[in-house]
Amino acid sequence: MPPDVGYTRFRGNKGTAREGGHRVPAIAWLPGKINRGTDSHEIVGGIDILAAFASVAGVELPKRDRDGEPIVFDGQDMTPLLTDKADKWTRRK
Predict the structure, then answer these.
(1) Strand ranges (DSSP E) for 1-93?
(2) Phi (first) and psi of residue 38, to 5 degrees
C-alpha cells in the first residue's frame, strides 16, 4: 500500500477496482432540505448527482434531444437518501 493512502478496512486504494478505490465520503448541504446529522451508508456515484440536482431544482430532465432522439440518463435521483426518505429509494439494477 502506498504510504500516502493511510489505513482503511477496505481492500485496494485509489486507482484500483477494489472497494478501497471507490468508497469516498461526501458531504451535502442544502438548508431547508437536508436535515443536520442525516447520514447514509448507501452506495451512490457521481453519475447520480445530475439527477439529484435536477430534482432539488424542480427541473425535469429531457427525454429527447432536439432531433427527437431519446436521451438516457443513467444516474438515479439520490435526494431521498439526503432528506430522511431513504425508505423511498431503491437502486435500480
Answers:
(1) none
(2) -65, 135
